Amino acid sequence: MSHKMSQPPSLLNKWIQENNELVNKWKQQEKGRDTVRQDHNQPHLKWCSYEFHKLLGIIQGIPPNSDYTQLELAVVYNAGVCATAQAQFSEAELFLTQAAERVLQVTGGETGASDPLVCWRAVLKSVENTHLHPSVLYLVCLQWAIWLATCQLKTIQEFQEEMPSLFETLCGGVGDGAISEARSKSSNIPLMVMDPRRLIELLQICTSIALGAERLTEGQSSEALTGLQAASSLPAPRALVGYTHLLSGSCLTHMRRPQMALQCYRKALETDSRCVCALYQSMLIYRQLGNTQAEIQALRLLHSTLMLPSATDPALASTHLLSPSSLLCSQSLSSLLSVPSALSVLHSLALKCLLCGRVSEGVEHYLDLLAVLHSEDQQGLHTQDATIPRLPELYLEAGAALLMARRPADCLALCSEVISTTLELLPEKVVLEEPEERREAETRDTEGENRVAMVLWTAAAYLLQGHCHSHLKDWKQAVTHYTRCINLLVKVRLKKRDFQPQFSSADMDVQRGKDLCVLQKLKGLSLAGRGISFTQTDKLKEALRDLQLSLQAFPECVGAGLWCGEVLWRLSRRREAAACWEKTWSLTTQSLVENLPVYLQEPQSGPLLDSAELRHRIQELGPT
Amino acid sequence: AMEGRCAVETWTEFGFLGTSTTPKVRFGTDVFICTGNDEVYVFSTHERKLKASNCFSVKDDLPLCCVSFSLNMTFHSCRAQSSSPDSSSIPAELKISEFLVIEADGVSSLLLVGTVLLTLSQRDSSWLMTLYKTPEQTESSSYEVLGSFSLPLVSAVVQADTESKTSVLICLHCGDTAPLTLPHGHFCLEPVLFKLLFGVEAALAKSPVILCGLPDGRLCFLPLRLPGARLRVLHSIEQPVVFVGASVVTETGPGHSQCLVAMGEQGRVVLIKTEKGRSEDGSSLAGFTEGIVSGPVQCGCLDRNCLYYSTGSDLLLLDLSEGSSGKESKERVEETSRKTLQSPTSLNVSRVVALAEPTSNTSVQLLGLSVRGQLQRISLPARRKDAGLSKLPSAQVGRSIRDLLSAIGDVCERSSVLKTAIKSKNQILRHLNQVVNISFLLTATNNTEDDPAIKEKPIRCHAMTSWSRLLQKDCLNLTCVLDNSSPFVLERGWTLSVTVFPLCCSSTAGEEISSANFSFPFQNLNSGETLEVLLPIAAAGDSSFPMTVNCSLIFSLSSLLGEQEAASSNISLPLNTLTVDWLNALQLNSPTARHKMVTFQPGSITTDPIQAFISSRQIRCSGRADRGAESGSRPEKYSASVRVSSELLKDSLVLKNSNLDPKISLSSLTVHACGPNGATVKLTAKKVGIVFSDELEVQVESSSMTAVCGLHHAVLSRIQVQTHTHTVRLNTIFREVQQNQISGALGVGMTAGQMNPGLLSVYQELRQNPLLII
C-alpha cells in the first residue's frame, strides 16, 4: 500500500476506499452491538445511510461512465439497503430507478420505461454478458426486497413468472464469482453492506411465507401448502423455516386434516422452540377434537413459554441489516401468527381445568391469575387484547372455583371484595333494554359504567356468598345473602313489555340476551338457594314459594325441581312431588347454556338429594 | 375572608432570569429546580440551603431538541433514588451518575409510578403514552418498554400551536388502596369518585390511574394495572391544561381527596366531585362544575380546600369548599342546577412561576418560585374566623410583625417596579411632545407659502459643495448643514434624510431617476446647534446638473415605543430644497481653485415664465451668431451672455459669506474653469454700460454645448432669484414707508427727527438697488 500512498490515488480508488471504510465501520458497529436491540442501531444506521447517500451524490455528479459504473452500483446497493432498513422505501426506489437510468445511458440501452419490471428487463438485457451483470442483479434483489416489504406480492409473482431464468440465476449461486474476486484483490472491489447471497436467501423464504399466508387467507389452501412445503427446505434462519411448517399446518387445518396439521405444528416447534403460535394452534386443534387433557397440556406449555423472558424478544431478531420482520409485514400473516397474551392463556387454562373437573388445579391457576393482576410487576399486563373477561367476572369465577374446591372462606372474601367495590354505585333501579337495542350500544368500554352489569355482578357475588353459607350450613346467613341477591335482581326492569320473562334457555339466543339470561339464571338460582335454605330450617311454606318461583324464572334448575318435589313430599303432596321429580329428571337431558359463566352453575356443594332414593320413594308410592 | 397580607420569605436566589424556557421545578423535602439549560439545583427545605447545583449536565452529543427532556429524565431517576431509605445524610442525587435512560423525541412530560416510568409524547397524529420499566440497578443502560397507549390528536390545527407546550401528568390512587406516603404528582382520591370516573374494574384491580392534561384541553386517563385498558378521554376544558390536582374540600373523611381540579391556561377551572342522588335512579354521579377565573394561569397548587394559582402579576386563592354561605343557599344552588365558583381572592404576591402545595399543617404555607429565580416561602394570613376566636400569643405577634414587614417589602418592590414604568412612560410622553411641537412648527411654515424668502423655516439646511480627490478620481461632495434655530430640541429618534436627484430628470417621471437617498440618524440637536453631514453627490464626468437636494426630517415612532408597537409609523417632515447647479460644480483652473461654492438657498426653480422666455431667446441668438463667426477654429465654440448690473452680479454670484476667490467678481474679468463633465469653460464679465453705467455683460464660452447651457442656466436662475428677492425687499421698504407715514400722521411715539432718517434710508435703499436685467 505504501507505493499507493506516495502518489495521489485516482478518483475511483478514493471513492472505493470511502465506500469500503463506511461498510467496515458499519460492520464493526454491528458486531459491537449485536446484543443490543435493533432500535439502538438506528442513529448509526441513519448516519450510515446519510453518508452513503452523500457519496452517491458525489459519484453521480459526473456523467455516467463505464469505468465507474460498478462502483456506483455498489454504492447504490449500499445506500438502498440502508434506506430500506429504515423503511424509507420511496427513497430506496428512487436510488434504484436513477441507477437503472444511468446504466442504460452507459450501455446505450433504451431508457424511459416507467414500469419497473420493463425497466429492469431492459437494463438486464443491456448488461448481459458484461462484468456489470452481477451488480445489476443485486439491485434487482433490492427492488424485490422493497416489493416484499411493501407487500406488493402481485408484482413479485409477475416478476417470477416473467423472468424465470433470471429468477433461477438469482437463486442459484449468483455473486459467487464476485465474492471470490473480492477476496483476491480486496481493496479494489467495492464492499457491500449486506452480503447479496444472504439477501437472496432471505428474500426467497420470506416471499414463500408471505405468498403462502396470502393464499391461505384467500382460501387457496392447497396451493399455499405446495409453496410452503417447497420453501421449508430452503436454507434460512430457523424461525423462518418454523414459519413454513406452521403455515403448512394452518393450511392442513383449513383442509380439515387436523392430525396432519398437528404433525406440522410439531415440526415447527422442533425447528424453532420459540414458535408459540404452533403451540397455540395445536391447542386449538385439541380443543376442536375434544381432547381436553391434551388441550390443557398445550395451554400449560403455551403459558410457560409465553412467560419466558425470551418470549418478549422479537422472534425474528436479525443479524443482518434487513430483518425478516421488516420483510414480513403483511396483514394476513400477522393475523395468522397472532397469539393471545399470557394472561388470557392462563385464564383459559384455569377455566378449562375447572370445567373438566380438575378443580384444585383450576383454583391454583385462578389464584396465579389474581396474583399477576395485583403484582407490582407490570409484565404482560399491557396488551390490547380483550379476550379475558372483565375483572369482577374474573373474581366471581375465581370465587366459584374456590367454592368448588371447598374453600368457602376464600370465596366469601373474594365476593365481598366485589361487593364493596360496587356497593356504593348501585342504582335504585335499572332498565334492561331490549336485546336488539342493547347489542348496538354494547361495547366493552362504553362511556360510564354499565349499570346492569354492575347489578348483575353484585347479585352474583351475593349468590356465591349464599352458596358459601349454605355449604357451611349457616342457613340463616345463607337466607340473608340469597335475599340480598333477590332484592338486587328485582331492581332490574325489563324495558320491552311483551318480552317473555319466562323462557327456555334452549331457544334463547345466548349472545343476544346474555344479560337477560344471566338475570333469569341468577333469579332462579337465588330463589332455589333460599328455598333450599328454608327447607333446612323447616320453613316449608316459604321454601315451596321460593322454589316454585325459582322454577318459574328458570325451569331448568335441577336443584329447585328436586327440592320442590321434596318440599311437596314433606307437605304430604306426594303425587305432586313425584310429578315434579319426573319432570326435573326429564329436563336434565337437555343441554345447558354453555356460554354462561362458571359462577352461574348450580352449586355442587349444598345439601343434596339422592335421585335413587327419590325414585325408590316414587316406586313405593306406586302408580296412581 | 382573609385578613392581613401574605408573608413572603425568600430562601434563596437562583438568578436565572432571562432564560426563555420556564424552569422545571419539583417540590418536596428537596426542591429540584432545572433552569432550562444544563443545570439542576437541589435545595433542602429542612436545612434551607442549597445542597447541590449542577449535579447533572446534559451530554454534548445529545440533539438540542431533547435537552429539556433528558434533563427531566435524570430528574426523575434521581427522585426515585432519593426516596430510598439509606440516603439520609448525603443527598442521594449526588451519587447518581449521569446516564441516558430513554431516547425518545417530543416527550412533553413524565411521571414515575412505583417502578414504572411514564412518558407522554406527541407523535405526528397522536399522543403516545409509553410505559418503561425502571431497572433495579441504576447501571442499566436503558429502560425496557412495557407498553404504549395512543390517543389520536384532535386536529392538525391544534397540533401546530401546541407544539411547545407541555402536558400535565398525575397519578390517582383509589381511597384506601393508596400507599401511605404519596410522592409528588400522586393523589389519593375518594373511592366513590374514583369508581365513578374510572370504573369499578380499576378500583377492583387496585390500579392507580394516570390522568393527563393535554395542551388541547383534554383530560385523559389510563388505569395502569388493568388488562386491556385504553387511554380514554374524561373531559375537555378546551384550553391548554396548566394544572391538575385533587383536593379534600371538606374536613370530614379520612383525608381522601373528594374533588378533582383541572385548570386551563385561560382560567377555565373544572371541579369534578361526586354528586349523590342526582341521577333519576337515585345513584351517585360524577359532577363537573365549570367556571372561569381571569387568566393567564401560569401555575397552580391545591391544599385541603383552596386552589392557589398565579397569573404572573398576582397570586390568587380560590376557595373550593362550599363553606357556610354555600350550605345556607343549598336550595338555591340546586335550583340553578349549575353550581358556580366563588370569586378568587388576591394574595398580592406577584411573579410566581411555580408553586407547591402547603408543607405545614398549622398554617397555610406555599413554596413558590418567582420569575427572578427566588425560591420563596409564602405564608398566608390566617382566616378571620379563626383569628377572632383566639388571641395571638406574643411569639406569634412577633412573627406576624415580621410577616407584615416582609409583606411591606414585597409591596415596596412591586411599587418600585410600577414607578419605573411610570417614569419611562412620562419620558416617552415628553419626547412625543417635542416631536409634535416640531411637526407643527415645520408644517405651519409650509402652509404660509406667500413669502418663502422671509418666512424661512426655523429648522433648515444649507449646503456647500467641494471637490475632493479620492482614488484618482475627482468627486463632488456636498456638505449639508442642518441648522436648528427653533426653540425645540431634536432628540433621539430623528433622522436627517437627504435626497439628491437630477433636476431635469425629475420632470420626466417615467424614466428611471438616478436619485440617491442619504439618511443620518442623530442623537440630540439642541436649539441653536448645527449638524454637519458630508455626502458625495457626483463624480467627475457626471454631468447631470443641476441637481435638486431635498432635505427632510424623519422621526420613527418605533425607536420610542419599541419594535412591536409601531411597525411602520414614521413622521416625515420636509425641510427645504436646495439646488446644486453648474456654477457650484465648477472647478476653477487656478491653483487655489478647490474651494467651496455656496448653493443658492430657497426655491430656486420658481422663475418668471417671461424671463425664462427672454433668457432662452438670448441663448439661441448668441449661440448662432458665435457659431457663424468662428467656425470650429477656437475651442470655445459656443457662448452665451447675460447683461446685468454689476451690483446684481456681485450679489448673485458672490455672496458675502463665501470665501470665493475675488478674481471671479468684478476685479477679474475672465475666469477659466473646468466643468463637471470635464469641458473647459471661460466666464468673462465686461462692462458694456450703454443705459446704466455699471451694466455688465457676463459671457459663458465653452466647446461643450452642455456646459454652456448649464452655466447659462445657472447664471440666469441665480439672477432671477436675486431679482425676486429684490422685489420682495422693495415691498418691505414700501411697507416701512407707509408705516412711517401713518405713524407720522398720528404722531404717536415717533418724532420728526426719528422719522426723517428712516425715510432717508428707505429712499437710499430704493436708489441703490435698481431693478434691471437687460
UniProtKB/TrEMBL annotation, chain A:
InterPro entries: FANCG, TPR-like_helical_dom_sf, TPR_rpt. It comes from the Eukaryota. GO terms for cellular component: Fanconi anaemia nuclear complex. GO terms for biological process: interstrand cross-link repair. PANTHER family: FANCONI ANEMIA GROUP G PROTEIN, FANCONI ANEMIA GROUP G PROTEIN FAMILY MEMBER. This is FA complementation group G.
TrEMBL record, chain B:
InterPro entries: Faap100. GO terms for cellular component: Fanconi anaemia nuclear complex; nucleoplasm. Pfam families: FANCAA. It comes from the Eukaryota. GO terms for biological process: interstrand cross-link repair. This is FA core complex associated protein 100. It comes from Acanthochromis polyacanthus.
